[in-house]
Amino acid sequence: MKKLLVCAVAVMAFSCVMAAENVIYSFAFNSKKEFNAWASKAAYPAYEISFADGVAKLTVKDAAAGGKGGFQVMPFFKQGFKKGVTYKITGTLKSSEAVRIQLCIQLSGAPYTVYPMTNNSKWSVLKMQPGVAQDFALEFTAPEDISAICRTPGIHTGPMKSGTVLEFSNFKVIEVQK
After folding, report:
1. Deepest in the core among 45, 60, 85, 116, taking most CB within 10 A?
2. Stretch 147-154: mean pLDDT, rounded?
3. Does residue 148 carry a pLDDT above 80?
4. Confidence check: pLDDT of 62 > 50
5. Is-contact 28 34, C-beta < 8 A?
6. Residue 2 DSSP code
7. What are the two backbone dihedrals, phi and then psi, of residue 4, each rounded to the nearest 5 degrees?
């Protein structure tokens, strides 16, 4: 009986944790209105953004030799954030090549503010390995009401070479209810 009671409490606790998050937006990734990328034309004369089955892909067609810059990848969240509310941004990234990626919560227009996350860092770093999908989760509390379009997340890559393909999927904005 004691074991059954312990199991019941564990299931209820797990259920409560699951109920403490509310997905407020799931990215469909089916057009450049919701997802886009930018890079210097001098460093990347040709690249392509494509969409299929909820996955956005950035394909580097041509990269200048010795380029030091990377891409800014922008999933656009237009619904805004409420002051004092904690949000979690989650998703999955996959790369055909090793590449360093920095993630942040960022305004998508001037002044391009990068908001601190709940761990007081403004950036989270992923070191992508070829062919390995990596999940991420960024948590932040909106310091003010934000009605401007945000990059959720703002994704900044390191240098990439011709033929590199980055895949983006399962992006969600979740309201964390404490």
Report:
1. 60
2. 95
3. yes
4. yes
5. yes
6. H
7. -65, -40
